[in-house]
Design brief:
Blueprint: E1 5-6, H1 18-41, H2 50-54, H3 58-61, H4 63-86, H5 88-108, H6 112-122, H7 128-139, H8 142-173, H9 176-197, E2 203-204, H10 211-234, H11 239-261, H12 269-272, H13 275-303, H14 316-344, H15 346-366, H16 371-399, H17 405-432, E3 435-438, E4 441-444, H18 446-468, H19 485-506
Antiparallel strand pairs: 1-2, 3-4
Length: about 500
């Protein structure tokens, strides 16, 4: 692969002074990741009341979650590739701007069609983390990069843990539109801070954007994830669901052939099929499945009525507070993940994280009646997720050239998203088949919850096994399996340093 071409940042415009910009890069990017996760979770406390508030059906309201999932899955690899080609800061600020516009639309309207459209716009923010990780690789020295990438990865869990109780408090004590006005203000601040404080990456991948590949991937992902997310409601054997899966499979085959023939493909499949990259994507999918079951099941378990014999009957605010220790743990353990990756390699960190997730589910199976044990088990799963999610982007950074980091990390995030969607469908299927009537209302049984924990724990062990099969890490960042591409990476970095030195001399 040709070395990427460094492009100097255009002069002029408002920008932070160089030293101040260096200090602000990580906090600004991390705040964007946290805001993205908050934006994805704030709608959850509203779901039971939205049919009444919008005058629509529960099925229509569920699309406020589905639309974000679908658009995020489609746009993450597309925007990642666009960032590699046209500038990561430019695409990052565009994604944050779309998220903010979606939040403003939600604040202004109670029409379900507008709300669904707005939530689809907010799905663009799913690309914030992979784009930010790419910027960190380009801008930070190697000794700071590991901890920064680990912290950036953990922002997803931190934001999710903060978003649920925050949204529950707003919904309980204020008009629900207030929540979206608040997120709109934070989004606008995030756009301005990113444009002001984050320097445009000089690493670009030349060529034309693969429009055909983007459209093909979009059709395949929409069909696949729509079938997975709606399978429980429409019926897994229904013609609609089966038809979606067939279309997804056919389009994926055609898309794969097109990508192999394209001169500048949307996704470099030759790179993806290398063991260090492909196995990292498989581990991401399995880890996403295992992690997501924790949030889904914990929220339902603690809110189950006491008459069920195991439920605690907690409010949505109390439920969010139960998940808050996990978010704090993710913040505290991200530096540890970076240190383990630096000493033992990110694949060991990933395997350790997956094993810790499995241990967390073992605690959940051992005792899911006492609140302190529920919080402990959920926090252990969150700790394992921190280790695993922090290691995944480091694996990708070490396995791909600088010009492909945003798109490669975008695919990795896409695999996590698919894993989460499958986890949601699997957990729903398990709980639906294990219910009992409590006060005339069907409620999942404790056995159903324990079975869901067992499935998630088993998947975590598969993720651990997949991590251990990834070829060993090399000490050089970007040296992909010793095939010589690491030399191209070093040449690219040399060009970047010369460009920056020349810019300083001109200044």
């Amino acid at each position: 692969m040709e070395p990427s071409a460094p492009i100097p940042e255009p002069s002029g415009g408002l920008a932070a002074p160089p030293r101040l910009r260096e200090r602000l890069t990580i906090p600004v990017l991390a705040s964007g990741g946290i805001l993205m996760a908050v934006m994805q979770t704030v709608v959850v406390p509203l779901l039971p009341d939205l049919p009444r508030l919008t005058g629509s059906s529960p099925a229509a309201v569920s699309w406020m979650v589905t639309a974000t999932l679908l658009s995020g899955a489609v746009l993450t690899p597309v925007l990642g590739r666009a960032g590699d080609m046209y500038g990561k800061r430019r695409v990052l600020t565009s994604a944050l701007a779309l998220m903010t516009v979606g939040s403003v639309l939600c604040a202004l309207s109670s029409d379900i069609a507008v709300l669904i459209t707005a939530r689809a716009l907010q799905g663009a923010a799913a690309s914030v983390v992979p784009l930010s990780i790419s910027i960190l690789r380009d801008e930070l020295p190697p000794e700071r990069r590991g901890s920064a990438v680990a912290f950036m990865s953990s922002t997803v869990g931190i934001g999710a843990a903060l978003g649920l109780p925050l949204a529950a408090l707003v919904v309980q004590y204020a008009d629900w539109h207030t929540m979206f006005w608040l997120t709109s203000a934070l989004g606008a601040l995030g756009v301005a801070a990113t444009w002001w404080a984050v320097k445009e990456s000089p690493v670009r991948e030349p060529g034309r954007f693969d429009v055909v590949g983007a459209l093909g991937l979009a059709v395949a992902l929409v069909c696949l994830l729509l079938g997975v997310s709606q399978g429980g409601q429409w019926g897994w054997g229904s013609p609609r669901v089966l038809g979606l899966f067939v279309v997804a499979a056919v389009v994926l085959v055609l898309w794969w052939r097109q990508q192999l023939r394209a001169p500048r493909p949307l996704v470099d499949l030759r790179l993806v099929t290398r063991p260090r990259v492909g196995l990292s994507h498989i581990a991401a999918l399995l880890t996403g499945f295992a992690f997501y079951a924790n949030s889904l099941v914990t929220a339902q378990l603690v809110q189950a009525p006491k008459a069920s014999g195991y439920g605690l009957g907690l409010s949505i605010v109390a439920t969010g507070l139960c998940l808050l220790p996990g978010g704090i743990t993710m913040l505290l353990f991200s530096p540890l993940s970076a240190r383990i990756s630096a000493r033992r390699g990110p694949r060991i960190t990933l395997a350790l994280g997956a094993a810790v997730i499995a241990c967390g589910y073992a605690l959940r199976i051992a005792d899911s009646r006492d609140l302190w044990m529920i919080i402990l088990g959920a926090t252990v799963v969150a700790t394992g997720t921190t280790l695993a999610y922090s290691a995944l982007p480091t694996l990708i950074l070490r396995a791909v050239p600088p010009a492909a980091t945003a798109s490669a990390n975008g695919v990795n995030v896409l695999m996590r998203t698919i894993g989460q969607a499958v986890s949601s469908a699997a957990v729903a299927a398990v709980l639906v088949h294990h219910t009992s009537l409590v006060g005339g209302v069907p409620v999942p049984t404790l056995h159903g919850y324990l079975l869901a924990f067992g499935v998630a724990g088993a998947v975590a062990l598969f993720a651990c096994a997949a991590a251990l099969t990834i070829p060993g890490d090399s000490s050089g960042d970007g040296d992909r399996d010793g095939d010589g591409d690491g030399e191209g990476t070093q040449r690219a970095r040399g060009l970047i340093r010369k460009t920056r030195a020349g810019a300083l001399e001109d200044a």
